[in-house]
Amino acid sequence: MKTIDVVAAIIEQQGKILLARRPPEGDQPGLWEFPGGKVEANETQPAALQRELREELAIDARIGGYVASHRREVTGRMIHLHAWHVVAFRGALTALCHSALRWCTPHEALTMDLAPADVPLLEAFIRARDARPAD
Question: Helix (H, G, I), strand (E, B), or coil: what is residue 24?
């Protein structure tokens, strides 16, 4: 089985995270996900995520810390998904590849129809976030 490395952005602003809805055509239509995409040959994960966010959302993101990884079989392929935290970006968010964008709290995101591979990443983000000291 082929393994594909994929990066995902947990974009956070003012206590909310950004979710993107998959388009009606293609894999997992209508599910909400963290934006991102495939890591190309000779590309680091942060570089891949910066490129993908330009292509999908028309933003220039500053990639922060690594959050978590998760493996899952999807349509006959093993997807190795790596989440990275994004706390700053330049540009106006534009859904170039998704049918909708939505800001919500991490706990609200757990109640949404998420792509299954993103759920463990969200749970890891919430655990890490809840473990941070208060400001």
Answer: coil
Dihedral-angle region of residue 54 (phi above 0 means left; psi in -120 to 50 means alpha; beta otherwise): alpha
Are 36 and 117 within 8 A, CB to CB? no
pLDDT digits (tens, 9 = 90+) for 85-97: 998 999 999 999 9
pLDDT digits (tens, 9 = 90+) for 30-73: 899 999 999 999 999 999 999 999 999 999 999 999 999 999 88
Q: What angle do CA 118, 22, 41 make, to 5 degrees?
A: 65
Taking CA atoms, 101 is separated from 28, 64, 87, in Å, by 16, 21, 17
CB of 63 within 8 A of CB of 88?
no
Q: How far is CA 62 from CA 14, 32, 96, 104, 130, in A?
A: 16, 22, 19, 20, 22
